[in-house]
Request: fold
Amino acid sequence: MSEDEFRAAMSRLAAGVVLVTAHDPEDGPRGEDVGMTATAFLSVSLDPPLVMVSVRNESRMDELLERQPLWAVSVLSESQRHVAGRFAMKGRVSDRLLFEDLAYVRGEAAGAPLIGGALAVLECRTEQRVTAGDHTLVVGRVLTAHSPSTEGGPLMYFRGRYRRLA
Reply:
């Protein structure tokens, strides 16, 4: 099986889109916020409340979450395609510029940005990291969970494109 065959098969699996964020206190005098679009995100357990996200090995987010156990997730709405695209760009500009004109609040538990207009926001603390091929599975205990927005549907990813539910 080729990488292209595997990618084509997996592109048929629809997934919700989230923005994973963390604050890097070691980057500069005030630190820096880091963000990553993810479609490999899921609920793992209700008791205790656990979630999991898959991050590419040696990515900025992987390196940060290895030393910073606190992070957040914003479940993006169908109107936030631009947010998903902005944080999914390869070879992008500084993370500082990516957050510049976005509406967000800083989470009280994790200190990471929670994106305004998201369908739900969670703050997490890493419980476990598991290397899985070219990615790391980061399991986090949910410290806080809120559903601030009831408007609109979720942003989905299917066949290599962002989509809305019909």
The radius of gyration is 15 Å. Helices lie at 3-10, 60-67, 81-88, 95-99.
